[in-house]
């Protein structure tokens, strides 16, 4: 019942900010058209605001899940009108904050002491405010500058309500919308449920940040702030304060003489390194989470914040994804079709020739454009929609990757409009493929297995003994089974023999009776029956075995 109340709330907020006009260009039918016509009141004051501001305020009003959707949209300025994109960009770090004194109270409760006994120069005015938490500045008693991230009070209940509504909508999509099954909406929402609840756990975010910092500790292209674990709890995260340039401040980056082309290309390389080398990638790469160091202007360094949402791919997913991307880069559509079947993304009985032709019809017109005009993320989305004809199912394990790829490309093109994602990604993927197949890389994998094998070595004699014992036992069981089968066959033969013997005796007795009782004239007219009975009985008795 709560989800219906939440749906009504969403419709009321949409009406309040007069968002219906944003959907005027869509030919809505059925329940969607009916719901948007419900008589909710609009706010006359909101009519004075531009459409981008009204959309941003509505998303803020609806809460964290809707704010995150706006954050994703804000990274795709090539897809949105500029007035809307500019407003949605404010969702990245300018969400309305909650009371700083309440944040202080939450910190004291979590850490079990007064704020002045824990930190110096604590600022009750938030440095930044986002959908799930807000950030305050302070200094440790030892002098290090830190930021303190505090989860919004009561946010978990709002998220649970929204997730209940999203699950309801996902079930509706799968049951009542054509091709809804292949979207696997319920699985996507289930995965997002896990992700969003992980985002509420700041200890998990700290662990992600620590792992990312470790992955790039010998690589200057990405810096991750240090986490202070003594001051970190489930709803409180304390980490090193950094002083960089927000990546969305293009003019400031130019004044600092940052090489924007190199910066954009480095961002793509960082993303592919996380996906294919580490299988552990930052999946919330909107501009509010990324800063740029003021140092190393010729070799720009990224600074990653907000490590709440991370994705990971299995080794099989990594290989198939890389192979598919390389095949698309090289316009080898036959290979793309075969890989989709091989990895199970389309049914095994999919006609390869038809699927190949479909891929070619989608890709070739796009490749006629200059590479800088091609949106790689949009190409993948278009391929998915087209492949729906062949019952291609959306892979939940790749949803975060697809979203992040859109983020990265949108961010890169904002920094450097002529960014050629293909030219940057292709050498990386080719080198990754060569490394994966090289003898040295396989030798490293074998070396990695050696400690595990050595650990199991003392158990090898016992394992061999158990194997031989099981083999002997299996042989004895097989022999016993054969003996039992032979006994059963012999018993069947005996039973059949007894039946034939009884029938033969009965036939002979009947023949004798018919001869010696002189049954009359019918006996004289039918002597053949007597002889048949006699011979049948004698034969069955003779061949009874």
TrEMBL record:
Pathway: Cofactor biosynthesis; ubiquinone biosynthesis [regulation]. This is Ubiquinone biosynthesis regulatory protein kinase UbiB. CDD domains: UbiB. Keywords: ATP-binding, Cell inner membrane, Cell membrane, Kinase, Membrane, Nucleotide-binding, Transferase, Transmembrane, Transmembrane helix, Ubiquinone, Ubiquinone biosynthesis. The keyword Cytoplasm does not apply. The lineage of its organism: Bacteria, Pseudomonadati, Pseudomonadota, Gammaproteobacteria, SAR86 cluster. GO terms for biological process: ubiquinone biosynthetic process. The chain crosses the membrane at residues 501-520, 526-543. One of its GO terms (molecular function) is ATP binding. InterPro entries: ABC1_dom, Kinase-like_dom_sf, UbiB, UbiB_bact, UbiB_kinase. NCBIfam families: PRK04750.1, UbiB. Residues 90-340 form the ABC1 atypical kinase-like domain. It comes from the Bacteria. Belongs to the protein kinase superfamily. ADCK protein kinase family.
